[in-house]
Amino acid sequence: MRPALVALLACVALVGCGGEDERAPRPGRGDLDRRLIEAAYDNDVAAARRLIADGADVNAKDVTQQSAYLIATSEVGDDPRLLELTLANGARVDDKDSYDGTGLIRAAERGYPRIVRRLLEAGIDRDHVNRLGWTALHEAIVLGDGGPAHVATVRALVRGGVDVAVPDGDGVTALAHAEERGFAAVVRILRAANARGEPAP
After folding, report:
1. pTM of whole model > 0.85?
2. What is the pLDDT of residues 37-50, one digit of tens each?
3. What's domain 25-92's superfamily in CATH?
4. SS3 track for 50-109
5. How far apart are CA 125 and CA 108, in angstroms?
6. What would the mean pLDDT of 165-186 be, rounded to a whole number?
7. Residue 45 backbone phi and psi in degrees, to 5
């Protein structure tokens, strides 16, 4: 056999002649999912897009029950780019975290009105009650600070059609929580919604 032909066959057998060992292990699905979750925490939308294109699952969860989708609702600020990417790639909008909370509850707790509005547009369960006995509206008040971001979040929730009369697990309404905490702007929004059933002011 000619030396050139022997060299060519060896090249094909060992490295595919592409300069890269094609027998080397490629990232498995679990590795892709793990890397996607890491990219999500970093709000690295470009990396997340590449990993999704390679087969990473936006709904895959780590040991703490975090997925790229859930991270997009709560861990990257009020920036909807990652959320849009996960929704466009099959995110289960009503998926739950370890507290049986939806992305809407998570976003409301942190005071992210843009995320809240996008999730409501996507058809998320508006009045889901988590393991603590709270809806998204309760969390925006009970775990919020009454500042501008949480006021905007409450307004977005009310305008988005949440039921303002749903009590928490102890029978306390969102309005009562807001009154107890002295959140005047939130109280005005909820009183107007209760009195007239109209969009928040």
Report:
1. no
2. 999 999 999 999 99
3. Ankyrin repeat-containing domain (1.25.40.20)
4. HHHHCCCCCCCECCCCCEHHHHHHHCCCCCCHHHHHHHHCCCCCCCCCCCCCCHHHHHHH
5. 13
6. 97
7. -65, -35
Q: Half-sphere exposure (CA, 13 Å, Cβ side) for 112?
A: 23
User: Which CATH number is correct for 100-201, 3.40.50.2300, 3.30.70.890, 1.25.40.20, 2.30.40.10?
Assistant: 1.25.40.20
pLDDT digits (tens, 9 = 90+) for 125-152: 999 999 999 999 999 999 999 999 999 9
Looking from the CA of 130 toward its CB, the CA atoms found within 13 Å total 22
Supply 54's token pair: 């390679």
DSSP state letter for 199: P
Pair of tokens at residue 159: 């305008």
Query: Residue for token digits 């005071």?
Result: 111
